[in-house]
Amino acid sequence: MSLKDTLTDRAISVAKRHSHTEVTPAHVTFAVLEFYLPPRGSVDKSTVDAARDRLPSPGTAVKPPEISPDAADLLARCTSDDDALRSAMSNLGTQPGSAGLAPTSTGGQANAQTTAATLDKPQADVLSEALADLDALIGLSTVKERVRELVAMQQFNTVREQAGLPKVGTGLNLVFTGDPGTGKTTVARIVARIYKGLGLLASGHLVETARVDLVGGYVGQTAIKTQEAIDRAKGGVLFIDEAYALAPRHESDFGAEAISTLVKAMEDRRGTLAVIAAGYTDEMAHFVESNPGLRSRFQTFIDFPNFTDDELVEIFADLAERNVVTASPEVLAAVRASIATAETDDSGGNARFVRGMFEAMTARMAMRAAADGTVEAHEVVAFNVADIPQQVATRRESIGFTGLAPQ
Q1: Which of these, 243, 255, 306, 325, is most buried using a 10 Å CB contact count?
Q2: What is the rounded distance in angstroms from the CA atom of residue 23 to the CA atom of residue 30?
């Protein structure tokens, strides 16, 4: 689903929640800003509250709202994170809390999204807010501890450097290991903001990439694509998801060219660039060992463990709360029972399973509400046990989930 389609659905949902007959620019503005709350972005809650205050009073509509021409025009401009945020803030005007907005940029690639940290706040505020967002994540206790170790170590080295002493220990580059959906991308975004708050990186933004964004199809193209991604990450963090896919599979694999370009940049741009590589534990060990330069530059590994069923239920409840959908204790108990008996493949587990279950239940709730030909407001705000599909997905017992719907 495109960004425009996603934001359109969210704007319609906002209008439905307020029983409005029409989706207006005010609904779109609120939907956009709410979409970029942490952990997806860094929009301040006060900014979202200001947008909420601009919404019309609750109505009495019982049919799905129609999109007004002005709202359609605003949505048409939501072709990238930057454009969506810029358009929403322009429509909102200078409201209290707007200074806390942290726009994002896609960098021109579907899988090379750039999430910018707050640039206009004092470093201490950026750091404290990033650490607060880290603490708010469900589970991940060992990950949080390791990140705080990194913070302490970087502060330790800053003081040593100011005293004319040599730095000790690790640099800024990290390897995140674990199953898909365990929060690696979410924590990477927070780490980028932490580096900004510590004064280690100028902007603290995160550029998200994968093999397709770095490796070309012919000789010479890969170095150009990789360098472009590196340039976009200047002053921030280059995040490489499933980085093990860069490890050469055969002699003519251009992944080796991407790694060579990356290794050079990690040396030449120390202090202005950090790289976080992520993927499965065993595969990432092979990736780091595939090039001597990687071994010397990736010295800090953080493992993202699996989570319990209870934490998974907490994640589901968090998703429901964020989307203003009531999940009763009875529903949550049924959700837990479904989770406990499910199995997944590697690509469908973790938070992806939670998100998939939530979306499937939302669709069933929508069908239930529309069954009599009339959708009423009270029918779209609470789950029933019957909304839980018999087979949402499958989940291996060894795979866990993480909170705040990481990507």
Answers
A1: 243
A2: 11
